Sequence to fold (242 residues):
Amino acid sequence: MAKEVQELIWKLSGANIGWGVPRLIGELRKLGIHVAKSTVEKYRMKHPKSPSPTWKSFLANHITDLVAIDFFVVSTINFKVLYVLVVLAHRRREVVYFNVTEYPTAQWVGQQIVEAFPWDTAPRYLLRDRDKIYGDRFRRRVSSLLIKEVLTTPRSPWQNPYVERIIGSIRRDCLDHVIVFNEHHLKRVLSSYFDYYHRWRTHLGLAMDTPQGREIQMPDVGKVIEFADLGGLHHHYLRQAA
Fold:
């Protein structure tokens, strides 16, 4: 095996961390280099593996009493940046709370957690990243609710997979198709999306059910009727008697 080929395999795998061995083999073939799978495995750069069994076990074992939080940003038509806080319950992938602000602070975020979990509804664990927005005031508020914080390691979004996934869904299913005018408009759009998401959007991780649960309607109930959601961006379907 020529040294330059070994170095090329190392270089390609290092620059493209999402490429598996088949993709690397394909790229090499397009460069006129034919190598065996075992060769690519031997000389490619080894990247850190995604979720460790220990971490995955923690998420699975505490799925009923674990919520995750995260922010994402949205730009308005006037280039104003708005911050959206999402609070997601792991058990049913349900968005139990969200809010929007132009000026997020630790005190504001802490107050959102209080509003998300009134009375005795607070979860046992709260999963979050290490963003500086979760400062002392936030941590004191969370502690007062007897919630234990679980922090992901730096630059490891895969450790908070469910909330990362729903943020991706919000963008792909909704915000990528909408021009946001202001904070009020964004809240209205997200409220409509979450209504659709909870009631009608099926999830592979929920055995093709919805977060709030959806009845199976047998053919003898009636004809399939289409209903528009989010102004026709999405649709749901129900059987209704003629």
User: Anything to note?
Assistant: The two ends are 72 Å apart (CA to CA).
